[in-house]
Design goal:
The protein is mainly beta. It has no helices and 11 strands. The strands form 2 sheets. Strands 2, 4, 5, 6, 9, 10 and 11 form a 7-stranded mixed β-sheet that branches.
């Protein structure tokens, strides 16, 4: 059984940085493409980032490009989301998820299978 557990969220100030972590059990991140989504209150879940594959670079939503960085440590079976220059509109519940290599390039949540329970990030002004 695949289990993804996010950590590292909390309440931060505008301009601060936060690093989210997602650790997997029952699954090896190196055998899939891990990514991040987020959902703000009253809004639909939206794509944030997904790891690159082969020579392709990671993909990012335009709203976070240049501020967020996705990475992973296969030895720890953990994927990270480094979030810098945080804005109030980054406030959301952040989810870790995985997709298959064949789905690389998709930003649709429907193409992501396993999901974590989510971790709250609140950016206060």
């Amino acid at each position: 059984q695949v289990q993804l557990v996010e950590s590292g969220g909390g309440v931060v100030q505008v301009g601060d940085s936060v690093r989210l972590s997602c650790t997997a059990s029952g699954h090896t991140f190196s055998s899939s493409l891990p990514g991040w989504f987020r959902q703000a209150p009253g809004k639909e879940r939206e794509f944030v980032a997904v790891m690159g594959w082969r020579d392709a670079s990671p993909l990012y939503a335009d709203s976070v490009k240049g501020r967020f960085t996705i990475s992973r440590d296969d030895a720890k079976n953990t994927v990270y989301l480094q979030m810098n220059s945080l804005k109030p509109e980054d406030t959301a519940l952040y989810y870790c998820a995985t997709t298959s290599f064949s789905k690389f390039g998709s930003m649709s949540s429907r193409d992501f299978g396993s999901w974590g329970q989510g971790i709250q990030v609140t950016v206060s002004s």
